[in-house]
Automatic annotation (TrEMBL):
InterPro entries: BchP_ChlP_pln/prok, FAD-bd, FAD/NAD-bd_sf, Geranylgeranyl_Rdtase_fam, Geranylgeranyl_Rdtase_pln/cyn, Geranylgeranyl_reductase, GGR_cat. Residues 46-207 form the FAD-binding domain. Transmembrane segments: none annotated. The keyword Zinc-finger does not apply. The lineage of its organism: Eukaryota, Viridiplantae, Streptophyta, Embryophyta, Tracheophyta. Belongs to the geranylgeranyl reductase family. ChlP subfamily. This is Geranylgeranyl diphosphate reductase, chloroplastic. Pathway: Porphyrin-containing compound metabolism; chlorophyll biosynthesis; Cofactor biosynthesis; tocopherol biosynthesis. It comes from Gossypium lobatum. Keywords: Chlorophyll biosynthesis, NADP, Oxidoreductase, Photosynthesis. Residues 227-293 form the Digeranylgeranylglycerophospholipid reductase catalytic domain.
Length: 452
């Protein structure tokens, strides 16, 4: 296709070579790499397409547009949103300037219920007076973040991306094929940010590799007023083989309804059976409720093998940034999008210069891994320890009865950093955890023998 036929064709100035010393991602020892220098983009700004308009894409687009980049935000269905529990950490409100009126509930109580229905109140004593877990609806948050990206200067393109043409040189443009109102169009850009979810087309086009996905399923249920009053500021988490073989089920309060759902990795074909399991567990609490929406969606279980290739970077679910154990993704999606956008702004000096794969790895990927890889690994370990059997889940709930465990959990979750605890209390927690695992394993065997 000739350049004259493309929408907004790019000029591609000549390049020159320079030698740069960079750290590759994952913080390996330094190595010497040769890359194309940053040619100046005379007469225009760097052009970046962000594909996907959820928290990751919108946050990336806002950062890019605010930093002087010519930004295009593609979103296939602006009126819809990903199925999601909707919990966000407290720090996200200030960090991302989320207006308080978007928050449906400020949860101050949580209950964790074991397979044997042992219930632990999580937060009633350990949350500080000013702390809560904000709950919101994704359709509300996503629309707000997209509108803010537009206000910053990003151009929203409501369309389906159908194909990407990968450039043959380091300075040639990426060509995005997309449809708007059944009309086929193309757009030429310098850089692409893939924020199009777990089934990312961008990831497939750049051969970023596969990853294991869980399936999340939830029903939004409008409850009678007296039932809804119970969930006024309360969220519940249920664990057990009846609700999920490797995750948890939840009841989270929304503005005028509750979200009741579950997830699994290893037995996705049985997801509806597990959904019935959680509904059976809470049947008396949701009696008389009316299902107003049914939702299902894949959730990545670990980062993709490749998250940057060429001048394409993946963020959010497309990159695999959902934590094990908690299944949290909203904050990490928005954070990765913002970090990627700001990294592109830095590397291009406000859109004045072309950037390279090495720039994306240095300014975005390495910074992300340095900040969050330990958190993801720790939560992966917790999931493998506590979600493998009903006995381990009983131990998990028992351990969660400790106020120290609760405080450490909230400090880590609400403020998004691994909390630094007291060494003596940490040692006691380790011994208590080992004791709970041993005791619950014995109890589990006794229960199994009794059932026979």
């Amino acid at each position: 296709m000739a350049a004259s036929q493309l929408q907004n064709p790019l000029k591609t100035p000549s390049s020159q070579l320079s030698i740069k010393k960079h750290k590759p991602c994952f913080l390996k020892p330094r190595r010497l790499t040769v890359s194309a220098a940053h040619p100046h983009l005379n007469g225009r700004k760097l052009r970046v397409a962000v594909i996907g308009g959820g928290p990751a894409g919108s946050s990336a687009a806002e950062a890019l547009a605010s930093g002087g980049i010519e930004t295009f935000l593609f979103e296939r269905s602006p009126s819809t949103a990903k199925p999601c529990g909707g919990a966000i950490p407290l720090c996200m409100i200030d960090e991302f300037s989320i207006p308080h009126h978007l928050i449906d509930r400020h949860v101050t109580k949580m209950k964790i219920i074991s397979p044997s229905n042992l219930t632990v109140d999580f937060g009633s004593k350990s949350l500080r007076a000013h702390e809560s877990i904000p709950m919101l609806r994704r359709e509300v948050l996503d629309a707000f973040l997209r509108n803010r990206a537009e206000s910053a200067g990003a151009q929203l393109i409501p369309s389906l991306v159908t194909h990407l043409e990968i450039p043959s040189s380091s300075l040639s443009p990426y060509i995005i094929h997309h449809t708007v109102n059944n009309s086929r169009k193309t757009l030429a850009v310098d850089v692409i940010v893939g924020a199009d979810g777990a089934n990312s087309k961008v990831a497939k086009f750049i051969k970023a590799g596969n990853y294991t996905c869980a399936i999340a399923f939830q029903e939004r249920i409008r409850l009678p007023d007296e039932k809804m009053e119970y969930y006024q500021n309360l969220a519940e988490m249920y664990v057990g083989n009846d609700v999920s073989p490797d995750f948890y089920a939840w009841v989270f309060p929304k503005c005028d309804h509750v979200a009741v759902g579950t997830g699994t990795v290893c037995r996705k074909h049985d997801i509806k059976m597990y959904q019935q399991g959680i509904k059976q567990r809470v049947k008396n609490k949701i009696k008389g409720g009316k299902v107003i929406k049914v939702e299902a969606h894949p959730i990545p279980e670990h980062p993709r093998p490749v998250r940057v290739r060429g001048r394409v970077a993946l963020v959010g679910d497309a990159a695999g940034y959902v934590t094990k154990c908690s299944g949290e993704g909203i904050y990490f999606a928005a954070k990765s999008g913002r970090m990627c956008g700001e990294g592109i702004v830095r590397a291009s000096e406000g859109g004045e210069w072309m950037i390279s794969e090495d720039d994306l790895k240095r300014e975005y990927l390495m910074e992300w891994d340095k900040k969050y890889v330990s958190t993801f690994r720790f939560l992966d370990l917790l999931q493998r320890v506590f979600y493998g059997s009903n006995e381990a889940r009983e131990a998990l709930v028992e351990v969660c009865g400790s106020e120290y465990v609760q405080r450490m959990t909230f400090d880590s979750y609400l403020y998004k950093k691994l909390a630094k605890g007291d060494r003596w209390e940490d040692l006691k927690m380790v011994f208590a955890t080992c004791g709970s695992l041993m005791r619950c394993k014995i109890v589990g065997r006794d229960m199994a023998a009794f059932n026979l």
